[in-house]
Each structure stands twice: as C-alpha cells, then as structure tokens.
Amino acid sequence: MIRGDAAPGRTRRPADHGRGCSPAPVDSGRSGGGTWNAATSGAQAAVRRDRPPAVGDGGLRAAARGGAVRPGGAMPERLLEHDLEELKKLLLTMAGEVERQLGLAIRALVERDSELAEAVIAGDAVIDQREVEVDHRVIELIVRTRPMARDLRLAMTAIKIAPDLERVADHAVSIARQALLLNQVPPLKAFITIPRMAEAATAMVRDAISAFVQG
To answer: Most buried pick, 36, 108, 157, 178, via CB within 10 A?
Structure first.
C-alpha cells in the first residue's frame, strides 16, 4: 500500500480548515425550512401587534367601530343618555316642589293663614326625600354607565344642587313657623317688600335649574 492512499472501503474526510469555528448557517434556500420559519414568525408578530385590547366583548365591538373603550367595557350611550335625562327630570321635580313650598310659606305669612303654614311644615319631608333620591340616582348612574368628562361633571353638579334646593325648602319652613308665631298677635302692618323678595328668589331658583338642565 502506498503511503498516503486511503484504505479500501474508507472514505477520506477532507481536511477541516475551519476547526474551532462555528458551523456554517443552513442555506434556507435549499431546505425551505428557514424560509417557512421566518415567514411564520413575521405573521405571528403581526398578529400580536394587531391584537385588540382584552377588554371583553363590548370593548372588542367598540374597538371595531373605532370608538373609545370605557374601563371595564363599553356601555351603550343610550343608557347613559336615559339616566342623565331621568336625573334632570328629578331635579326639575324637586325644584318645582321647592318653589311651591316657598310660595305657600309667603302666602301663609301675608294672609295670616295658619293652616297653610302647617301644610308647608308637613311638606318638608317630601323635599328631604327628593334629596336622597337624587343622591341615589347619581350613584346608580356612575356605577352603571361610568360617565366621563362632561357627563361626569353634570352628575356631580346634580349631587351638589340637591342640598341647595333642600336648604331653600328649609327656609320656607322657617318662614311658615314665623307666620304661626305672628298669627298669635295682632297684625302690625301689611307685608309689601317680603312678597317681592320671595318672587325674586323664586325666579333665581327657576333660572338656575333651567340653566343646569339646558346645559
């Protein structure tokens, strides 16, 4: 056997000139596997980027419409509008009752009507109940619809208006009680200025509530 020739049945391995180096990367063009993996990774990344926020079915529908997503899911706008309208109606009812109480108290004072004064005092419980109803309605509105921005400010304004209206009704009760006391003594003179003041105060209450309701 000549030295240097390979033995029969053995394949001579070429010299490893790159010993110690990293193996050459697989040619993706030959096997096709590298190309498929790269395309799949790109598609998965695109899906992750385009995935909508996980906010529930309502949030997905809102995202599909291009609208803003409320925390915890999108609530129907018509539900919020309905609750706000009901809140305004309740405040209008309360304001009307307060206006009536004030007018009756002035009449009881001017006309020396003790029975009317007693009716004003008894009717104060209704106004107190209206204030509680407004508080509950605002809390329910916030919990159900989670209003934001202008709608939230309107709800919080309503919860501040109700105590002011109740305070006006308390003043009407005070006038009625004073009327009961004055009715026990002979009249001194006719009341002229007080009815005018009451009319001006009633107009102020009416204008304030109208401004709130009309926005």
So the answer is: 108
Is residue 145 within 8 Å of residue 83, measured between CB atoms?
yes
Buried b (16+ CB within 10 A) or exposed e, 93-123: ebbebbbbbbbbbbbbbeeebeebbeebbeb
Q: What is the pLDDT of residue 55?
A: 42
Nearest Cα to 145, choosing from 69, 59, 86, 79? 79
Task: For residue range 40-52, list pLDDT tens digits in order.
Answer: 555 454 444 444 4
Domain 77-214: which CATH number of 3.40.50.1100, 2.40.50.140, 3.40.50.970, 1.20.58.220: 1.20.58.220
